[in-house]
Amino acid sequence: MEDLAQYITPTLLLPLLALVAVFVFFGCYWSVTAPRPGTLDWIAQRERRARLAFGAGIHPMTGRDVLPLLAITVLYAVTAFWGLGSFENPQTFQTFSDGRTLTFSLDSRIDLARVDYYTGLSTGSYTLECSADGTNWNSLPVLEQTYADLLKWHSAAPEGGPVQARFFRLTASNSTLELGELALYGPGGLLAVSPDSAALLFDEQELVPPESTYYNSAYFDEIYHARTAYEHIRGIYPYEITHPPLGKLLIGLGIRAFGMTPFGWRFAGTLFGVLMLPLLYVFLKNLFGKTALSFCGTALFAFDFMHLTQTRIATVDTYAVFFILSMYFFFYRWLALPPDAPFRRGALPLFLAGLSFGIGVSCKWTVLYGGAGLALLYLIHLVLNRRARQELEAASPFASWAAKTILFSVLVFVLLPAVIYCLSYLPYAQARGDTSLSRLLGIVWDNQSYMFTYHKGVTTGHPYSSRWWQWLFDIRPILYYRGEVTPDGLRSAFAAFNNPIISWTGLLAVAALAVRTVQRRCGTALFLLVGYLAQLLPWLPISRPTFAYHYFPCTVFLVLAICYLISGIMDRAEEGCWRLPVYGLTGLTAGVYALFYPFLTGVTVPVWYTTWILKWLPSWPL
Question: What is the pTM of this model?
């Protein structure tokens, strides 16, 4: 009983209070938006058969939007870029000749207690031998450089304790291996060395960190995507070809700007995470026309855990989500045009939506799911527009408008994305030394077959994998990094999962979208519901191991769905009465974000803090 009592306070109390707050907010929405029986509103809703339509025009940005937009974007940018990664990592690498053995010596004997090394490209291993007299040699444990060890600091120690050494032989298992730095430690710490040879292994000793952490080394899938970005820069055919190339090319922009450092390979993704906020703000303003709602909705997304953690890691998911948001934003601007608008007014938003789709799908295939959602909305809109133009006797007949629109859509949603997708493979062709069109198309075709076969064939389990139904309730995060516990009882760790306030409120909001779509034939509700389901439903039949971060695109639509509820409260609540539930939910989300911030960014905190304050569910790996 004592153990149960300890768990209930505060580990279980905090999520229970949060869950109560979520249901209170949802109850407030349902209460204020439901007409009282017998009122004129109630009678009208029962007697009137509403007609489905997308949007009531586009609400423009105003001067009042500048300050809240800048405030939330700057605040988030500070929290996102803070502690992102080291600005300094070894930039020069020692390569090994066909002899594969490198010798060097020191001015005097040392007591060698430990060897740290920083790995570059290629996989294999090293054998490090040391001798005090140049005659009798001792071998240290093999220095591994597998695909999971690249771009990381590693340590190896002699068995049985320190050994005397002056002469060294370093042998590589193959001639393609690259080693960035070698650091020799004695019982008292890092040893200052100035060898006559192997200068590239000791030319950046000031960059040797006291220990290997996420801050100075690659973690999770950065070992693939950051590596691939670097290989593209160097003109090397990439090792990782399980996703289209463009996301890795975008990662490479940060590397070109800041070097092959953790900050460099994470910079572009974090920047795109920041840029999502002004894009979402404008989207919300166009949808609902309310400055307070746009600010609160953007804040909800800014304070979501997944948004922060997933954009701080050098993987391609960030770019996919950004362009999913972008293509839905531009597509909505097309849907919301007046039904009798001429073709030319819709050409630009359609083009930008298609461009976003093309760039996004060239980063990751999951953008195809969003494209399927747009296709469904597109067909519905054609049907609705035909009826509306006939009723309005529009100057531009439906047949003429539809013919132009369909032909243009084929151009911007099929041909343009195909061109972008194929061009993204140019680094592959360049690495092969043949950029002819036939060779490029051959590489593209072969890679599509490989990617499909690879993802279909992934069966190896993972301790932090999760199924789609677990994503809905935030049950199983994926742990990206967990450091060792220090003697003072401190630990650094972080994982990818949603802010539970967003997950739980958003799930109720999605249910409300379904009800409003059927009950009131609300086009906005249908638009948001299709966006959410398009990103979720394709994962249901997939049997390969999946992870919480696959739910990241759905998070955008969870926030939009919550904003749909907020709009309903603001429209129907008595004057001023909407502030408590709306600002209360936003403040609660921000508070939970602040509470969990150390576990999202790797800030070192006491173990008891994560165990007794943050472990809201037993399945959370804290």
Answer: 0.93
